[in-house]
Records
---
Amino acid sequence: MTTRTTEQPGTFPEPPPVDSPEVKRRNLNYREAFQGRETVSKFIDPCEGASKASYACLNKNNFDRNKCMEYFEAYRDCKAAWLQQRREDRQAGRPTK
């Protein structure tokens, strides 16, 4: 049995709004992203929301990358800030998990 949605075929939900990269950088705390997860995995990513938003934008815009550049920039900035924070934590001797 299949479930039906109210959306028209070929349409996608509106992707979530993208915060400015500076806002994402200030709000990033990867330890909070890891807490509360039932399974521990090396693939857990605190930038998962930005990643999903960029894929949703691509789907919505028929994979036209030029229309989704803000989403890609937000993801790159989030990922860079996360890696920088992990690097600083390791150098300071704080746990990264």
Note: Helices lie at 21-27, 30-34, 48-60, 69-92.
---
Amino acid sequence: MLRLLRTTEGRILLLTLALASLALGVSVRNAVDRQRPVVAAEISSPDRAALARMQDAFASIADQVEPTVVSIRSVHVDQTSNQRPRVTPQLPDDEDLFGPFRDFFRRFQGPDMPPPAERSSGSGFIFRANGNDAYILTNQHVVEDATRVRVSFGNDENSDMPATVVGTDDKTDLAVLKVHFDRPVPPERVARLGDSSTVRVGQWAIAIGNPLGVGETLTVGVISAKNRELSGVQGIRSYRDMIQTDAAINMGNSGGPLVDLDGRVIGINTAIASPTGGSVGIGFAIPINTAKSVIDSLVRTGTVTRGWLGVETVSSNRELSPELQQYYGVSYGALVDRVRPDGPAAKAGIKAEDVIVSWDGKPIHNFSELEDAVTSTPPGRSVEVGIVRNKRHMTVTVVTEKRPSEIALQNMLRGQDNEGAPNEGVSPQAMSRPDALGITARSMTDADRQQAGAPSQGVVVTMVMPGSRADDAGLQRGDIITKVNGQVISSLSDYRSAVRAAGGKAVVMRVFSRLPDESTLDRTVVVRP
């Protein structure tokens, strides 16, 4: 499970119990160890010198970076809670029974009772100073919807001071805060930013932040991987090109720096993959180069304006596989799995299954390159876009628009109806047995076609055999297959014929899915042998 790293008050009790248990365990262990003979470990002089140099390096990094790191505390008030009806007992009119406490009780009874507040914490670091003002970079989810934000700087005399949210960007999950000192910000308070494009797997990585609210903490690990993509983190968040590290990061580390051996920030600690909520050595940081592309705009205007095309692809198709290259007749490009209705691409005539191969005269090799090209194009600009459709090259003119917020983009996908029973109103004759791909399918019914966003033709997947080719490709019960190897599927017999014609070779399908959050998805799926 992917988790963001903002802590809330409810976790502090668990931390206290865990620390108490740990202390008890250490006491028992020490009592046992005293009964064992002590064997001195011998370390050769060269090894000791190497370890000492490494130790000094980490200590120097702590001395250099920790003054730039802040702990962030935010208060989030649920303003909608007062709109819910309250059921409370009425106080009797007997003044002698309650006396002077009557007003006290009534404050907690009627509509004047304040809405509940959630307090959370995270981390951040100063990346810029302007006179007495310090600008702090953190994650947007640390301060999202916050009514009050305060930051602290360890034992500094200016510790625990209010902060202002200067700007936020939900696409990158980054935010900039500002604090005002009573004197110019010293240079040692400002972190040095590195270059995340030079990061190598295996190099040292040091994470600094305020995990679980215990205070400023430094942990050490390595860069485990690069260019990780995370989808559906706590609902709507998705991340690209993330840095993975095994340096221990936990709840409360969000927004803190990930630095290299030179003490330069290479990432912003953001999320962990964990079945328990604690660190298991799989943490993720936003590359600092991603932050560099937005912080100037956040400081200057409080927001980031991007161009928008209105096309999407699924994560498995961000790079065209050899099967898809052959199927679409291209050697590179960005496959369009879905076109947003009324978006710039739809208005320009771009369709699902088009492959975009150039943008404004520059080649597009994959979907990430397309996203970068589009977002860096100002809204309202006309752009020539090269596409391949049915293996034919053509050019369309697109007028980019301003990119909507991430929440608005998700709301565009929401369906209005639930899927209903997969086999409701279907006769046994309209259903198939498992085929060579491991799929059991049936014909579409009128009820299927009336579902929000559903295609008008295709076959409905009623079962996917575990471990089958279709299972490996990610097909699921309820999916609607609309095309097989280029053949439009109008009936169950069409589907059977297309699968038989493929033999044991790879099968390229167009598949419609309804997701758990009520959104819909059209995608190209390769079912491999």
Note: The chain is about 20% helix and 30% strand.
---
Amino acid sequence: MSNNYPNNSNPNGDLPGYNDYAGGNAGESNPFNQGNPYEQAGSYDQSVGNGYGGNNYGAVNNNQYGAPAFPNAPAFNDAPGNAPLLGNGRPGAWKRFLGLFLDSLLILIPAIILVFVIGGQDFMDWVEASSSANPGETPSVPYPTAKMAIANVLTAILWFVYRVFMESNKGGTFGKMAIGARVVSANGQNITPIDSMKRNSWYFLAVIFNFIPTVGAFLMLAVYIAVGVSIGTNSQKQSFTDKLANAYVVNK
């Protein structure tokens, strides 16, 4: 009888031995060496999309809820301090005006002190002379224009320094804090002192207009209106000086 298992080293003849299964039979493929069908793609041990050992159970999936749906789309980070992408979370013109009003009340105290230190007595003498003068009569004591101008300039500088320091170090003035808002840059951080100067430049413009006789008060009012209108008509709730500084006022 011919030996069907030439690799057989078994002296019992025709019975298959270990080498027949492991090495194949006369160059033919071993029918028992087909690999483990459970190791193919889609099996329970493979990291395929829907396998139990894949992304759905325990493995990291790059498209989970916290990751952006598109690889090139920027992820939205709503952590505190980051500016929202849209204007919905930002205070409007009236809310910001309230913060400005509160800051004005705060600055009013040192402003009054400056006025009385620099020209308080001259101002009181002028008030007394004006009240005692007849209608149409020029007061005997002139108005202390130069001293009042110096006091106004120093008050404006104090206001400016206060706002720049608070915005660049604390994220906003006390008025902003009171209305629950803060000033941030495009990356959600505190703005720099230079950007804060740009952002508050409108105030110096209003102060300069205030020195113009007769029409100065109207021009200063026009600046305030322009700031409010630019905030109300901008989708990002930015005033024209906010744009100049690339700054945003956001709700906390």
Note: The two ends are 94 Å apart (CA to CA).
---
Amino acid sequence: MIGARDQKGMPKGGEVNAFLGRGTTFEGKITFEGMFRLDGKFDGEIFAGDFLVVGESGQVNAQINVNALTVNGSVSGNITAKTRVEIHPPGRVIGDIKTPVLIISEGALFDGNCQMEKVETRREEKISVLKVKGDDREESELKEIEKKSGS
């Protein structure tokens, strides 16, 4: 779902799984899967899910922990996003952000601290070791060694 995006940061062809509409007010804790669009007012906590979109009329006062976030409205609170945070005008974020990718479009507002962490990638290297004739140190003809590193 994280890939091509339209002008407001929405994934192209992305289907909204849940929606909190304009004029709706909700307090509490939200957990979701897929894409959630928030155009109303929300106070509380938002966890899990793949992709959260705060629409232009959206007003969020929450601790947010999602895979990816696009803000076109107003967010107040700390944000943790595993892949990216995008803020587009007239969007504004007041709070701290922890994410590997932060995109702030011209005209958007961010007031807070940002901690950008490297996306964890695992690299695997395979090395083949052949037995040399007369070498009794190896028991097999071919031994495959996997060397894994976190860089």
Note: The radius of gyration is 22 Å.
